[in-house]
Amino acid sequence: MISVNDFKNGLTIEVDGDLWRIVEFQHVKPGKGSAFVRSTLKNLRTGAVQEKTFRSTEKVEKAQIDSKNMQYLYADGDNYVFMDTDTYDQLTLPGDEIRDQLNYLKENMNVKIIMHGNETLGIELPKTVDLAVKETEPGIRGNTSSGGSKPATMETGLVVQVPFFINTGDVLTINTDDGTYISRANN
After folding, report:
1. What pTM value is reported for the model?
2. Residue 186 and residue 8: Cα distance in Å, rounded?
């Protein structure tokens, strides 16, 4: 058990039998009444996000979450196959469990599989991925990095807003947290 005063972003807790990851939290000390912690929690099983308030004296159960380094191998219909990089065991996850991460997955990419006991909760991507531009409007001479943006479809189907000078075939570094363009990848 941990005190709500020990909350940190990214910490996983167990509340009412469900697993929740703390997205953000705020300690509030009102002028009148007792202090409390206002938090935004994400359900690791359903993906639902919920606001929850805890009294500052409450304690919650810290969930035991493990992660395994695995390599994404291939898609098999609506299922996605991963291989443990240490034991070579394979794990198949249904696409609806990892729908939000599919736009960033490339074959042979290393990811972390998040587990609670024997239950697989999802995958954790690297902070950035390098993806090739599959389709975008051609760059026009005179367009610079400081002006506007245009949509570009990446090799995985993800659509990203990119500067005008980006062309089809360029490899870009993309932020996996919010799907934004960071830079051209170093080749």
Report:
1. 0.72
2. 34
